[in-house]
Design goal:
By secondary structure, the chain is an all-beta fold. The chain contains no helices and 8 strands. Helices cover 0% and strands 55% of the residues. The strands form 2 sheets. The protein has a 4-stranded antiparallel beta sheet, with no helix packed on it. Strands 4-7-6-5 form a 4-stranded antiparallel beta sheet, with no helix packed on it. A hairpin with a 2-residue loop joins β6 and β7. The chain is elongated.
Amino acid sequence: MTMENIVGKIPTKVEQEEDEIRMYFSDGTVAKWLHYQECCEDVVVDDVNGDWADLIGNPLLVADERVNLDDFDEESYESNTWTFYTFRGIGGSVDVKWHGSSNGYYSESVHFELYTVGEQQ
């Protein structure tokens, strides 16, 4: 499942927490961004620029993901990953920055899921 699957869908509601974002659509589907925590990593929503309300009621024109991996720091044994999402519609846009850090062994990625209401929560 890719982010392209939500382009053209009409958001009706967005719920945001520190480590999860859910976007509900008029066709009964839900897009979810989160990180499945393992042991020694931390992945959270670091910054949101824009207002989710600007996307409600109009088709998404852009849903884009970009990832920036930092070089592993041998001295501190730390790895960092920044994942950026851009959502655009007729009413405006929202940019989201996630930050993940770990000892380099664990995943710092953000997972994207798309499902129909009732299938998963």
